[in-house]
Specification:
With 191 residues, the chain is of the alpha+beta class. The chain contains four helices and ten strands.
Amino acid sequence: MGQRLCVMFPLLASQRTVRHSRTGAVVKDKKECTNGLLHTRTLATVVPQPIDRSHDMASTQASIDIPASADQVWNLVAGFNSLAQWLPMIQHSEAQEHGRLRHLTTVDGTVIVERLESYDNAARTYSYSITEGPFPVTDYLATLKVIEVDAGNSRVEWGGQFTPAGITDAEAVEIFDGVYQGGLQALRDNF
């Protein structure tokens, strides 16, 4: 039968790559006709390893001291949809998906959509990602945190990590340095 297969179906002699659905292993094999018989020969087996992409990400962080208690500052910034109340560049914010998504409109009409990824009221922190916006980055994840310095003073940290898309790390960092530093100064101006 093998001889007849090679003669009747010469395209059966080929090379192929197969991915194992459970393990993710990739097997390359080659079907050959030898003396009219079809044989399969394994060329390579590759088992995937986790890829560490952390080195591909850029990051930046800004902080500012505010002459108000951590509770006072947190009361202003804690609502994920409250950005328009303290950040002048945000003209409008609309909550969706039970408050886990915010649609922001800037003063120049730009739309930014952000998703709440984690929230810890006791630790006074939340993290969010950008799902839509004008920024030339992917995999964006930022964290805003209010820290008590003493009874009447606090420190706010705002930072993020992201993968630049079509720009350098330095250019991406410069964009978000401006966002975080300008945003924190605007927050401080509320106290």
